[in-house]
Design brief:
CATH superfamily of the largest domain: MetI-like
Structural class: mainly alpha
CATH class of the largest domain: Mainly Alpha
CATH topology of the largest domain: MetI-like fold
Number of domains: 2
Order of helices and strands: HHHHHHHHHHHHHHH
Distance between the termini: 10 Å
Number of strands: 0
Length: 333
């Protein structure tokens, strides 16, 4: 297991290197001159040239890339052209906000999706099966922005049960420690604030987790139906085991590998694609941070944001691969 883990980690090195090259290249293809954007339309050409020289934008492409890699290896993500602050310090609160939202969205998606898929396969062709798969189809097809607006209208405006925007009560802010607000409130033993933060998480988590929930439900049902037809399941049934034991103890373990793949991919997708949810619910996440940087031509922030999201995506896939070997030891051979 250790050797397999080390091989998988070493395989990440060329992936991460290629990721930095692609990110650096794509960002530099964005039209517009950062120096011109910073100085404004009325800036003279001499001032623009001086700023380009100070920022290193007039150097050859590969020289800029070499400097970028050297800085990355030293943990330096650069300085924001807009705020003039160190990106490594500035970006973390936004990353933490997106990670927290993604975590709770995937809890909702995995819990509801897997159980709906399992019960649908268990009760195949029943009313529950038809209703669950219909809801899954609607969930896959439903635009996030529409669902988010409907949630705000019903649960915030009409019923007044849940807050519509933000991460916390702006009149009673949390003193950040890790910038995971639920964790920070619990570390400070402030349970009322923790409940407030959880209330702010409910609507965006459901909006963000609905599509993954539907995909996970359909994949779980398909995988479970295939496993339930196996010979060993018929053997367990012949031995007189209860249906609950057969489904959750014997069938689920062998059906979960393709479901894990979907969960890993969907988690990565949510990390990079939460910008609609973050915009609708006023969530200060990495998606909005990068989007604002694009409009300002803030190259260092764009590169760092994309790179961080891609890094987490790669790490999530590594964790999924290692979970494969734990569930089915035959894989590492």
């Amino acid at each position: 297991m250790f050797a397999y883990t080390m091989r998988r980690i070493l395989m990440l090195i060329p992936v991460l290197f290629g990721m930095t090259l692609i990110t650096f290249s794509i960002v530099h293809l964005i039209p517009g001159n950062p120096a011109q954007v910073i100085l404004g339309e009325t800036a003279t050409q001499e001032a623009i040239n001086n700023l380009e020289e100070n920022m290193g934008l007039n150097k050859p492409y590969f020289v800029q890339y070499g400097i970028y890699i050297q800085d990355l290896l030293q943990g330096d993500l650069g300085t924001s052209l807009r705020s003039k602050t160190d990106i490594a310090q500035e970006i973390w609160p936004y990353i933490a906000a997106t990670l927290e939202l993604t975590f709770f969205a995937m809890i909702f998606a995995v819990f509801v999706g897997t159980n709906a898929g399992i019960i649908s396969a268990w009760k195949q062709n029943s009313l529950f099966d038809y209703v669950a798969m219909l809801i899954a189809l609607v969930g896959v097809s439903m635009p996030i922005f529409w669902l988010g607006l409907m949630e705000q209208w019903v649960f915030s405006q009409e019923l007044g049960w849940l807050p519509a925007t933000g991460r916390e009560n702006s009149r009673d802010p949390i003193e950040p420690i890790t910038y995971f607000y639920v964790l920070d409130a619990l570390l400070q033993l402030d349970f009322s604030r923790a409940i407030t933060v959880l209330k702010h998480l409910i609507l965006p988590s459901i909006a963000l987790g609905t599509i993954p929930m539907a995909i996970i439900a359909r994949m779980t049902r398909s995988s479970m139906l295939e496993v339930m037809k196996s010979d060993y399941i018929r053997t367990v049934e012949a031995k007189g085991a209860g249906q609950f034991i057969i489904v959750y103890k014997h069938a689920l373990k062998n059906a979960v590998i393709p479901v894990l793949t979907v969960i890993g991919l969907q988690t990565g997708v949510l990390l990079g694609g939460a910008i609609l949810t973050e915009t609708i619910f006023g969530w200060p996440g990495i998606g909005r941070y990068v989007f604002d940087a694009i409009s300002f031509r803030d190259y260092p922030v764009i590169q760092s944001g994309i790179l961080v999201v891609a890094f987490f995506f790669v790490i999530i896939n590594l964790i999924v691969d290692l979970l494969y070997t734990y569930i089915d030891p035959r894989i590492k051979y």
